[in-house]
Amino acid sequence: MFRCLHRGSNLLTGVFNASLLRTSANTVSILETKTGRKSAINDNTRSISTTPLPEFDKDGLKSHDDLYRLSIEKPDYFWGTLARSRLQWYEDFSLTKDCDMKSGHIRWFLDGKINASVNCVDRHAESSPDKIAMIWEKDEPGTQEYVTYREFQKLLCKMSNVLEGHGVKQGDRVAIYMPKSPTAVAAMLACARIGAIHSVVFAGFSAEALAGRIMDAQVETVITADQGVRGGKIIDLKKVVDDAVQTCPCVKRVFVYQRTGNEVPMSNIDINLDKELESASDSHTPAVLDSEDLLFMLYTSGSTGKPKGIAHSQAGYLLYANMTMKHVFDYKEGETFGCVADIGWITGHSYVVYGPLSNGATTLLFESTPVYPDPGRYWEMVERLKLNHIYLAPTALRMLLKNGDEWVLKYDRSSLRKLGCVGEPLNNEAWDWYYNVVGEGRCDICDTWWQTETGGIAITPRPSSPDAEIRPAMPMRPFFGIEPVLLDPVTKQELTGGNVKGALCVRHPWPGMARTIYGDHDRFLKTYYADYPGFYFSGDGAYRTQDGYYQITGRMDDVLNVSGHRLGTAEIEDVIDDHEDVAESAVVGFPHEIKGEGIYAFVVLKDRVSKSEEELMSDLKHACKSRVSSFAQPDFILLTPGLPKTRSGKIMRRILRKIAANKPDELGDVSTLFDPSIVEILVDKHQQSL
Ligand code: WT7
């Protein structure tokens, strides 16, 4: 029987009491930037975002600095208190944490019993059944659908009954390959409700990429849609699943949701999801799960060809998504939160689903693209749906700003309060445009740094004290509980003070951090805990300013960031090397105006080839698209007689990166190469190809 420990307590209701939020006068000092636009550099405080944590009022802790200090010095008290007040438990935990950063052993809220779907849905369906839980912003503007918490609870219960009815049980892995829709969110939360582990695969990945993820987790159940609709185009999702499943003997059933209702071939393992939902009961008893039971896994790229199934557990992840969503964006009761990311990425998990819903917010499910039907889509949507927050990717901003201010200015954006972005560095030009044109100089810009592995936002300007400045183009300040550390990659010594650059690590554990790589805990330890013992290593480099603010300098490993999508260079090389005419290849990133980073492939052919150069180039691009995803297609392919290698045979990517970036005079020392003459050939060939 469901028992609620904290419902109705002052603590829980206090969280949603807007009168506790503080405001103060606006004081902004405006500086002219080189673009001639106004930019608040030193004192960007027009909208005050400090949201004190009422839980600690009794300790006399109200200022952000005091609260941050508490989170670092007394993490058990800090997170334990918040876990009890913000989440609803079946059974209280006995120990706040059991973590060892040296051995990568991470456990939070031990022996606690909880269900994430109850926290996201049932408690709000009970207290405010008619509140809008989600707005499904479908591809065609103006066709949005609203779903209340009560309606969504029914869908969730039906979905849970359907899954259980077909034998899906606690601990099973379920692959979700769906476009954004209430049904897709219900699929995720139904897994959470019955204790199955969802593995959402972005519905733009190829059949081969999907199959790899299905096989890695030995998935028996797949949930998909007949088709997707995006930017006015129909995408045959079921067909991709059919192709993938052919190579996956572990798959026993494929649920097919009708997004378009067009006829698609159904085989004997396919199940019409809509029909099943229709006849299923709309009440369901949730499973009582342990804090540390896995909630989901999500694949992300690392420096080898095989994507990693990053695994998150129930309570810690949920609390961290809940806290960051509420306090980074200063979410207030009644507001509409618009994170446009897909549910196939961690941003969609934390800031479309778990963060907003666990706060009882109204969340946006955006099915379309930033340029459909025209580059005004986001802002037209902001006006029509009265969005109070928008959270998007820098690559979209860079694309939109090229289309001119008129696409923004013709819509009313006065509802907007906070502007967030994530995925890659937000360059000065895009920051300036976001702040001045989109936000009319009155909304905080939250450049948020985090990763699939961190579960939620880790570094971002807000929350902070009301008068704290926001500087362009850097995420600046750590969230509660996060103490960033910079370490020297060679000496492994901690770099102290300001004006230093190093490997970005975190000193203390936090509830939202990943627990393992599904099925490969050794790889988990090796990737995140081996290089800098005692710290979590992010894989990114960062710079700390004189006054202690953080700026991300980029990946330190062989991982690319193309339009905010993480891609391992080895994943692309594997595909290219499979071509019968290719001897070997090396892929590097180069600065790209819109995508942030573009893909440059250096390819060495075999002595005898079967095809012309044009045919080969087109083959290789097509292979990357069809075997990984369209964003994995190289922007440049350079055919070369060889690659720069050391005497031990290691490819010197540093040199390839400089060539790709068109900086041949910055090649540095090439004398350690086995054959230094190859460098000149590469530089010449690159120049000719421009
Ligand atoms: C990598 C994580 C976290 C959701 C989206 C991506 C890069 C992320 C920023 C930022 C500069 C950023 C890092 C990080 N990144 N946010 N604000 N500034 N770089 O999640 O796919 O796990 O990728 O994205 O390189 O390691 P992800």
From TrEMBL:
This is Acetyl-coenzyme A synthetase. The keyword Nucleotide-binding applies. Residues 571-650 form the AMP-binding enzyme C-terminal domain. InterPro entries: Ac_CoA_lig, ACAS_N, AMP-bd_C, AMP-bd_C_sf, AMP-binding_CS, AMP-dep_synth/lig_dom, ANL_N_sf. It comes from Mya arenaria (Soft-shell clam). It is an enzyme of class 6 (ligase). Keywords: ATP-binding, Ligase, Nucleotide-binding. Residues 122-515 form the AMP-dependent synthetase/ligase domain.
